[in-house]
Amino acid sequence: MKKFGKIVLTGGSGYLGKVLAKHYSDLATEVVILSRHQIACSANIRCEIWDAKTKGSWVDSLVDADMLINLCGKNVNCRYNEQNKAEIIASRVTPTHLLNAVVSEMPQPPKVWINVTSATIYRHAEDYPQTEANGEIGYGFSIEVCKQWEASFFDVATPKTRKVALRMGIVFGRADGAFPRLLNLVKFGLGGKQGDGKQMVSWVHEQDAALCTQWILENDIMKGVINCTAPNIVSNESLMQNIRNAYGISFGLPCPTWMLSLGAWLIGTETELILKSRWVKPQVLLDSGFKFQYPELPAAVRDLLSLRV
Questions:
Q1: Would the pTM of this model clear 0.90, i.e. be above it?
Q2: In the chain, is it the N or the C terminus that has fewer CB atoms within a 10 Å radius of its CB?
Q3: How far apart are CA 214 and CA 216, in angstroms?
Q4: Residue 4 has pLDDT above 80, yes or no
């Protein structure tokens, strides 16, 4: 017998959506992915088309769902010109406004709604970890995105639906996301520190990212803002060294800031994604009793490389 009924993933066709769909396919009677395009589904996972802007038949998929997880958002790995800025904000705020309008009017709405936001909302921190209680909000475009995103989420009351803004760190997984790209740098001898290497990296193993959402679903006290990062954060230099050690490569060519700036310009991205120090602590999860499967980076890296601990 399945543990849950229906789990709905909006914008669930991306990497993290696939991780969550796989996780809940074994636990729920049905997993519904709301996507702008038809995607291949199997077993108890099905796809519904929506445009993330208007109401439609997809609304019926939310009825009496155990949990709604919203993952909508244009990839921030791009240059921050005015057009991209507008699209990044709209791709997050518009679907959230739409879901609020639908959920707040439903007689049988989802019991829990997790909006996966970003741990980058906190300031550049090299002095101490940013928790939900004492974390200081930063400044700049990426932080403004997060602020508008969370404001659009919490500005509508949903008495029948418990809400969580899940400030997610950098998800490390086998198939996609940041880790395979960092591993490629190591393979080609470029896996040294980036910039001065002192910037902190708030990461989380993909399995813990999925288990965290399950923990929130199963614990009624979990609501509001929650950080989702591994409890043991590392510097960029330590991160790259760990990957090199696990892969068996002793040397990695470092990449100074000027070279990162040039490279970012050439490939159409921003150096902030690499150079900002994100030191975020999941205090609420730890205080609630959540146990990370991969609290330490070395074990997480070995797992992702499918090596024995």
A1: yes
A2: N
A3: 5
A4: yes
